[in-house]
Amino acid sequence: MLEVLRRVIQEVNGARNLDAALATMVRRIRKAMQTDVCSFYLYDKELESLVLMETIGLRTQAVGQVVLPLGEGLVGLVAKRSEPLNLEDAQSHPHFRYFEATGEERYSSFLGVPIIHQRLMLGVLVVQQAEQRQYDDEDEAFLVTMAAQLAGVLAHALATGNLNRRALPSGQTMFKGVAASPGMAMGEAVVITPPSDLNSVPDLVPSDEDFEVARLKEAIGKTRAEIRAAAERLVNRISTQELALFDVYQQMLGEAALSEEVEKRIREGQWAPGALADVVRRHVQYLERVDDNYLRERAADIRDLGRRVLAHLQEDSPSTPETYPDNAILVGDEISVAMLGEVPRDKLKGLVSVRGSSTSHVAIVARAMGIPTVLGMVDLPLPRLSGAPVVLDGHRGRLFVRPAPELKARYESLIAEEEALSELLSHEQDLPSETPDGHDMPLMVNTGLAVDAAALLKSRISGVGLYRTEVPFMITERFPGEKEQTRLYRDQLESFSPLPVVMRTLDIGGDKDLPYFPIEEANPFLGWRGMRVTLDHPEVLMVQLRAMLKASKELDNLYVLFPMITNVEEVDEALRLLDRAILELGEEGIDVERPKVGVMIEVPATIYQMDALAKRVDFFSVGSNDLTQYLLAVDRNNPRVSSLYDALHPALLGALQELSQDAQRLKKPISLCGELAGDPSGALLLMAMGFTSLSMNAPSLPKVRAAIRRVPFRDAQQLLSEVMLLDTPAQVHMHLDKRMDDWQLSHLLPPRD
Ligand code: PEP
Ligand code: MG
């Protein structure tokens, strides 16, 4: 059975399109289970019914005709209960319903299993038999496994619009992702792909295989011409032996080699760039493993040829357009900060990408710039989106392609409401962040970008609560040197002086890679991250500390923050390096004061080491983004579990309250610089817990300030005591929403469904 399973799975995954995958699957299942009928019913959400989509054994005319409301008939019952149903004598079951179109009365036995993807029921897979048969445990396990396999294929097809169920009005399609930066936008999709990068080509099912093959051939033809021209240019300058290499390239590109294989892959259901990338990858992997220097060299040649062909394939959809529409919604497999910089700010209205999550660095940048963003849209059909009108909802993590007029009108009014609100709130931005009963709640900003408009912010904040130094490191091509860093930090310290600026030492690893310092790990968030990297590379940390100290000379507003601390020895070691840097600078004639030093509380272990930490540092800063992922064991970047990621989980609230009480007992300031601080109701709870400051992205300031200015401190404390009694994240959210509604502050909360 296992072998059959593996083969079916391979065939389904390699099928050209969804129809072919479904047809293959029902045929193979029927054969493997030696049964008479195998059918697949798709659940249509709008009809709340199951529709027969594919069958082998029932009459094919029944496809699309048999429609069973949820809970009706045996198939409807399987769907409703989301449980398998195994009946030897199906006709005697009270739910049995007869459909003439299927010719079903001839079948006695029935086994149906639900198809479930991420808790959503997508359909039902059924086998039937004419004579009475008790399907055994192995049959049931086989069908359940097939259903689980089909679930992934179906979810992908539904999301990409490749499955023709009742279309949304006027062909509108909706894609879901992870909300990464709030706000809504309407505009034109501008698809960008990194140029000639074989590793970042997305997998896509071609809508027209012949077209894909034709453009592949054209691209190969152009590459061959290019190589011929290069060979001709070099003819008198290099040896005949070297020149012969160009013939090898021509052969590699020839019909019988690369071209044929790529074409085959296209016919199996991959678009041309994806097919090319697959074939090149396979060859390169093979050649790199061979114990022969000559052949290993050829791996590089194949990669290079692949890149050249890819560049030609991308000519018809250039990687970055020359001009942008006035309302560009940038869409890509992966969008880098550098790509963002290429679009004029006034034209950039939104961002969407297949990869990434709410805390990937492009999300952090987007939030700081106030650009609505949705990431982790894993099923986006990139090439078909180019130029399409879209509506982007950064609050709910949605993208609507070719929106229907009603939806457009609804979003137009939502956007207008949001603009009116921000206009209203802007009037109180220079007022103190103080509750009506006089409690002062200092607000700070998170920075890391040159675009942070310090001059405007300065009068509205109490300082910079988190300067993420890794952001400037990400946009350079190598580690910036001491001089360069000093300039960068001086700029930051000067811009906000005399306000305090908390500079965090390099926090790379996890999802924050430097292009010139890649870290490949199976579990990057549990691996070499933050302080763990910089303590292993004291030369990098020393340069950074020296640069920070030099930059702070005579400004004295520098605070140093160490990320990802797990053990106090790490703090001791980091402090030792800091003191050494001060000493070294002194020897060089640069006398600097020892800045105040803090640690990030983001690894749960630190919650229980507050006393030991307090002996060593001057302040605490809670990184709720990481604390949430580590306390709940939910990868902050994984869209599959994003519904479990919740900074308002009762466990988090308990930890945060304890942390704040500990800090008060230890007489140390404690701030919070994760995303929770920028959520108005979250901010009220943190204020009530006694956090000494809250640090957030600049665009979150107006709403948080508005909430603080309207809710008396004692009411926030009352709210906190109510919330602390609740058992589930959903109850916490509901209660907060209700109280915000009572206070007529629900307009400050992000819109939800
Ligand atoms: C955090 O973890 O909450 C935090 C502020 O740091 P980062 O998001 O950069 O990891
Ligand atoms: Mg963190």
From TrEMBL:
InterPro entries for this protein: GAF (IPR003018), GAF-like_dom_sf (IPR029016), PEP-util_enz_mobile_dom (IPR008279), PEP-utilizing_PTS_enzyme (IPR050499), PEP_util_C (IPR000121), PEP_util_CS (IPR023151), Phosphohistidine_dom_sf (IPR036637), PTS_EI-like (IPR006318)
The keyword Kinase is annotated on this UniProt entry: yes
Compartmental location: Cytoplasm
Enzyme Commission number(s) from the entry: 2.7.3.9
UniProt-listed Pfam families: GAF (PF01590), PEP-utilisers_N (PF05524), PEP-utilizers (PF00391), PEP-utilizers_C (PF02896)
Single GO MF annotation: phosphoenolpyruvate-protein phosphotransferase activity
Keywords: Cytoplasm, Kinase, Magnesium, Metal-binding, Phosphotransferase system, Sugar transport, Transferase, Transport
Record-linked SMART domains: GAF (SM00065)
Signal peptide: none
Chief place where the protein resides: cytoplasm
EC top class, as a word: transferase
Cofactor: Mg(2+)
Catalytic reactions of this protein: L-histidyl-[protein] + phosphoenolpyruvate = N(pros)-phospho-L-histidyl-[protein] + pyruvate
Ranges for domain GAF: 17-164
Protein name: phosphoenolpyruvate--protein phosphotransferase
Gene: ptsP
